[in-house]
Amino acid sequence: MALQISWMQELPQLYRRCYQKPFPLSDGEPGTCATTTGGQASFSSLLGRATQTLRDFLREKEVRRFRPYDVEHLLLPLVPQLPPLTGSEQASAAGPSVPSHTRHLLSETLRILQQEGTLFRRVLSQDELYHVTEQDKDLLMAIRDVIQQDSKRQKYAEKGCHILHILSSVRRRYSQSLSRQALEVGLRFLESSSDIISTSDCHYTVV
């Protein structure tokens, strides 16, 4: 009898453990972060359009260098399509204006174009001056000069200069902040212009 009473006293605790819990929703079910996921997808799509818009403009106008405020207006038509801010973002920003949205979109766009090597900054300073890799004649000349001069050395005479050697030399001569991605864009441009040729994987020499 005492055992039965003890077991009955434990029933409320067992009930709370087993049944008084929120029903778990697995990832992907309706109602789980739909707004956040949708917002991220919308911004990713918008960022892709902004990147292509700026890339096309730089190519068509043959822009050599620019500052962010020179191209900010190109993204203004896209800004109304930005997803609405979350409650916490609205509270912290107190309803950001359209220009702030534009600056954020432009900042992310420039970051992507730098990552792919389309743009680079010769000097990292408060003056945000961006160089367009394929249009920077000084950079292209520096790359070609390094390959032309060093290919004559016995060490590189057979296979040509390795890309890491070229990168190191161009950084010393032209820009310490030059990325490998930007160098690769410059090398492809010079190769398409028949100024240099790739002798093997990651090795280059002059024609």
Account of the 3D structure:
The protein has a three-stranded antiparallel sheet with strand order 1-3-2. A three-stranded antiparallel sheet has the order 4-6-5. The chain contains eight helices and six strands. The protein has two domains: 34-115, no CATH class; 133-206, Arc Repressor Mutant, subunit A (Orthogonal Bundle). The radius of gyration is 28 Å and the shape is elongated. It is mainly alpha-helical and 207 residues long. α6 (137-150) packs across α8 (180-192).
Explain the layout of strands and helices.
Blueprint: H1 2-19, H2 34-61, E1 65-66, H3 68-71, H4 87-93, H5 98-115, E2 119-120, E3 130-132, H6 137-150, E4 161-162, H7 163-173, H8 180-192, E5 196-200, E6 203-206
Antiparallel strand pairs: 1-3, 2-3, 4-6, 5-6
Helix pairs in contact: 2-5, 6-7, 6-8
Share of residues in helices: 40-55%
Counting DSSP E segments of at least 2 residues, the number of strands comes to 6
Query: Whole-number radius of gyration?
Result: 28 Å
Summarize the main sheet.
3 strands, antiparallel
Question: Reading side by side through the largest sheet, how are the strands ordered?
Answer: 1-3-2
Integer count of domains:
2
Q: Spell the H/E element sequence.
A: HHEHHHEEHEHHEE
Seen as an oligomer or otherwise, the chain set is single chain
| Residue fraction in strands | 5-15%
Name the poorly predicted regions: 14-36, 89-96
